[in-house]
Amino acid sequence: MSKHLVLSAFLMPGGYDQRAWRHAGSPAEDLGKLSPLEVIAQKYEAAKLDSIFIADVISASYILDGDVFMGNPYEPASAMGALASSTDRIGLIGTFSTTWNHPFTLARQLQALDVLSDGRAGWNIVTSSRAEENYGSVLPPKEERYRRAAEVVEAMRQLWAAWSDKAVIADRESGNWVDPALIRPIDFEGEFVKVQGFLNQRRSPQGHPVLAQAGQSPDGVRFGSAVADLIYTAQPSREHAIDFRMKYREALSSVGRNPDHVKITPGLVPYVAETETEAQELFRAMDRFTDFEAAKAKFTAEYRVDLSGLDLDEPIPLERFDTLDMTSSRGGTYREMTEGNGFTLRQILVNASSSSGHLVAVGTASQVADTMIDWFESDACDGFSLNAPLVPETVDSICELLVPELRSRGYFREEYTGTTLRDHLGLPIPPAWDEQ
C-alpha cells in the first residue's frame, strides 16, 4: 500500500456524545482546565495520529443548557498554544471565525502558533451562524459571510507569503536580523477587508497553517474547494461519501487545484472494545441520560423540523423535512438517514445526541477497521475524523485497539516520518512571494 489513512481526532474532553460528560468516569469537574486536554492529546500523539482538532462555537448560550459539547469551554488559540509545549509532532487544528475576527489579528495569531509549534498548526475556517449578541452586531446573511470569508482567507494568505523563506539573515555585523528586500508588504482591499503591511513573524517550516473547512452546502463546497487543504464532513453512508468525494474532487479540478492535495475526512464515532458485546454496552451506556422530549425540542429548534405527534419508533415523514433550514447541511444528513436508511425518530434523536450525524461504528477493533478500510478502498474518503464518544474509555480504545489494528494491516504509520502537519498529510508547502 502506497498511502495510509489520514487520522485526525476531535479533542473533546467531555466526550463527543453530548451526554457523555454526565457519566461517572468523565473528567467533568476539570473541563476548561488544561490537564484533560493534555492527557488526551498526548495519547493521540503516542498513537501517531496526524492531528487533533479543537472545535469552537463563540456563543456561550449552550453552557446554560448543560451542553458542554456545543458550549465547549476551551478557546482554541490559547489551548493550541498550551498544547504546543506539551506535544512534539501531532498537528494542532483550531476553529476560528472569519465573521468575527480581523484578518491581520487572526493571521498573526495563527502564524505565531505555527512557528512556535515548528509547523504543526491548522485552521478550521468557519463563517459562524450565531454570536452576534456578543459583538453587539447583526449576523450578515450566509452568502455575504462567505464573500467576507474568501477575502479574509486571501488577505491572510498574502500576509503569510510576505516573508521570504530566506528573509531571516541574522547578520550581526550589519545589524540586520532580516533582509528588508525579502519582505514584501501587502496592500489588500476588498468589499469587506482592507489590510496593509506585513506580520512581525518569520515563515513557518510548513509555509503557513493547514486550512481545514467543513461546509457541505453548495456555498460551503465552493468556498472549501477554493481554499481548503483538509475537509471535515458528515456522511451517513459509504455511497453518499463516495458521491460527495467524487463531486468535491470535480469541484477542485474545476478551479485548477490538484484533488490529491485536499484530504476529505468524514467523521467517525467509534465504539470499540475487546468484544462486540462490550462495544454494544459502551454504545448503550448513555441511554439512561436521554430525555426524548428535550431532544425533540432541541432538534426542532435547530433544524426547523416539526416533530409533534410522532411516535419514536416510526420514521419522520419526509414531508416534515420540507421546512428544513436549508442553511444546515447537517439537517440534510438527517433527512438522508430517514429516507435512505429508514431511521426511526428515536434513532435520529439518539444519533443527534451521540454522533451529530456522523457515521457510527460499533464492534471490535477488527470490525471497525473493516468499515474504515472498506470506505478508504472504495474512494469514499482519504481518512477519518475520529470522534471519541466517551472519555476516557473510547480514547483509550482508539489508541490501544483500533489504531494498532489499522497499523497491523498496513493502513497507518508506525512512526512519524515528518515534523510538520503538512508532512503528515502529504501536502505541498505553499510558496512565499519570491517563489510564486
Detailed description of the structure:
The chain is built from 13 helices and 13 strands. With 436 residues, the chain is α/β, with parallel strands linked by helices. Strands 1-2-3-4-9-10-11-13 form an eight-stranded parallel barrel, surrounded by seven helices. Helix 3 packs across helix 4 and helix 8 crosses helix 10. It is globular.
The percentage of residues in β strands lies in 15-25%
Overall geometry comes to: globular
pLDDT averaged residue by residue: 93
Uncertain stretches of 5 or more adjacent residues: none
The sequence of SSEs as H and E is EHEHEHEHEEEEEHEHEHHHHEHEHH
Total number of beta strands: 13
Distance between the termini: 33 Å
Q: Which class do the helix and strand fractions yield?
A: alpha/beta
Judging by the overall fold, what is the CATH architecture?
A: Alpha-Beta Barrel
Q: How many domains in all?
A: 1
The CATH topology is TIM Barrel
Helix content: 25-40%
- H/I helix tally: 13
Under CATH at level 1, the class stands as Alpha Beta
Instruction: Give the biggest beta sheet.
Output: 8 strands, parallel, barrel
Query: Widest sheet: strand order?
Result: 1-2-3-4-9-10-11-13
Report Rg. Answer: 22 Å
CATH superfamily, please?
A: Luciferase-like domain
